[in-house]
């Protein structure tokens, strides 16, 4: 019988609705990040760097690009005969077919998959955070404390603690209590949604709570074990960790990569971040081009000027175009003499000549101010912007647009123009 000490279950089914149009056609973990990477590359690379060679990836929303990206796991050395990476979508059963309805429900529906590896420990991960963590060190901590559950937690400023699920511990990091987004927090240790369970305890709790609607770790599984007196510990993590759940935090995390001494280094030899690479030509910079403090992906051609930006692979930036403080994703083409300020342009977009993005005063977005804010301008995947158009800040454009869609060739700040059923 196969026996693995620890297997990982990676929750990658989320829609990521706060990323707006970026996730209208793709699951959040498959969104590009840092040029050539995708968000899911980070937890997958952490797994292989930590010696965890068996990973179940639970997908649900718009999984096509995620499945294609992961494939059989070759880039992460996860193409194993025993273990490796397995994509686990919800599947049809003879009765009661259902979508994954909560984080723990997704795990519950895959009990049989986990059983096949007869693990001692199960590591639960989220597919949408940017960080480097050695899960082996966390497992040692779990074992040394005789824990049944270990929750990774990071210190946050006390004034921000009310935005998180908070764990309260004694001086040996044993968890005594939990608070979900407390008004007056008693601790500043925020749960990161990374858990190590003893398999027996996890299975027992999943089965005991199986009937709960939207079965959830924080609401059902962990409180059940806590009530039973299972020893639980908080593993304090002090490295870089970013939840890129909003457009602004996503933009910010990308911009942090191009600091002179980045807090999060993509290129460390001893902790590599792996991704699926297509063999493409190297970058090309014309003699008139200017590039400063930017990441430029392979196969990109730069004829204009790029400052403080993250440019994906296969991007073309035309002559006389100036790109500042922006994220341009793979295979996007930007015409000549454009001006792009604080833009997030998704994959395969086409921007015409003489286009201005991110100009004018900042005005609240008229349809989703909680998503489109901080002065960013967001262009959806495969969108087309015609020549000569000006688009303001906090605005969003999606779909194949034509000159007639713009009054006086202008989309003012805070406006939404989405064609063809996008979100």
Q: In oligomeric terms, what are we looking at? A: single chain
How many H/I helical runs? 8
Distance between the termini: 48 Å
Largest sheet: 9 strands, mixed
Structural class: alpha/beta
What's the Cα radius of gyration? 23 Å
What is the overall silhouette? elongated
What's the total count of β strands? Answer: 33
The low-confidence parts are 92-98
Could you report the average pLDDT, rounded to the nearest whole number?
Answer: 87
How would you summarize this macromolecular structure in one to three sentences?
With 423 residues, this protein is α/β, with parallel strands linked by helices. 16% of the residues lie in helices and 28% in strands. It is built from eight helices and 33 strands.
Summarize this structure as a short list of keywords or feature phrases.
single chain; 423 residues
Explain what the structure shows.
The protein is of the alpha/beta class and 423 residues long. The protein has eight helices and 33 strands. Helix 6 crosses helix 7 (217-227). It starts with 5 loop residues before the first strand and ends in a 5-residue tail after the last strand.
């Amino acid at each position: 019988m196969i026996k693995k000490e620890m297997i990982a279950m990676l929750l990658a089914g989320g829609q990521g609705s706060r990323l707006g149009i970026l996730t209208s056609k793709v699951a959040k973990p498959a969104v590009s990040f840092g040029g050539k990477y995708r968000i899911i590359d980070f937890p997958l690379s952490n797994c292989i760097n930590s010696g965890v060679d068996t990973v179940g990836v639970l997908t649900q929303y718009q999984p096509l690009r995620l499945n294609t990206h992961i494939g059989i796991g070759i880039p992460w050395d996860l193409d194993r005969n025993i273990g490796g990476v397995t994509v686990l979508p919800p599947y049809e059963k003879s009765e009661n077919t259902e979508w994954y309805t909560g984080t723990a429900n997704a795990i519950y529906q895959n009990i049989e998959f986990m059983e096949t590896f007869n693990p001692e420990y199960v590591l639960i991960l989220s597919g949408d955070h940017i960080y480097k963590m050695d899960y082996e060190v966390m497992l040692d901590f779990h074992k040394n404390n005789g824990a049944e559950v270990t929750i990774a937690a990071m210190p946050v400023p006390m004034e921000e603690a009310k935005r998180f699920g908070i764990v309260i511990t004694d001086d040996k990091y044993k968890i005594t209590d939990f608070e979900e987004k407390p008004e007056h927090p008693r601790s500043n240790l925020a749960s990161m949604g990374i858990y190590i369970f003893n398999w027996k305890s996890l299975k027992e709790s999943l089965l005991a709570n199986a009937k709960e609607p939207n079965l959830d770790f924080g609401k059902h599984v962990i409180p059940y074990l806590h009530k039973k007196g299972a020893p639980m510990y908080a593993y304090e993590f002090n490295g870089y960790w970013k939840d890129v759940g909003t457009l602004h935090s996503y933009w910010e995390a990308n911009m942090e990569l191009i600091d002179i001494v980045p807090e999060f280094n993509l290129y460390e030899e001893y902790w590599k971040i792996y991704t699926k690479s297509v063999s493409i030509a190297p970058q090309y910079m014309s003699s008139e081009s200017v590039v400063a403090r930017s990441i430029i992906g392979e196969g990109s051609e730069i004829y204009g000027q790029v400052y403080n930006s993250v440019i994906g692979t296969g991007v073309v930036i035309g002559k006389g175009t100036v790109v500042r403080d922006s994220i341009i994703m793979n295979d996007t083409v930007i015409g000549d003499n454009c001006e792009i300020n604080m833009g997030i342009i998704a994959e395969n977009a086409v921007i015409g000549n003489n286009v201005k993005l991110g100009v004018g005063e900042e005005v609240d977005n008229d349809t989703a101010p909680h998503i489109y804010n901080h002065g960013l301008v967001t262009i959806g995947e495969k969108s087309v912007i015609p020549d000569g158009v000006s688009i303001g800040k906090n605005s969003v454009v999606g779909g194949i647009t034509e000159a007639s869609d713009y009054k006086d060739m202008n989309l003012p700040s805070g406006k939404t123009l989405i064609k063809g059923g996008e979100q």
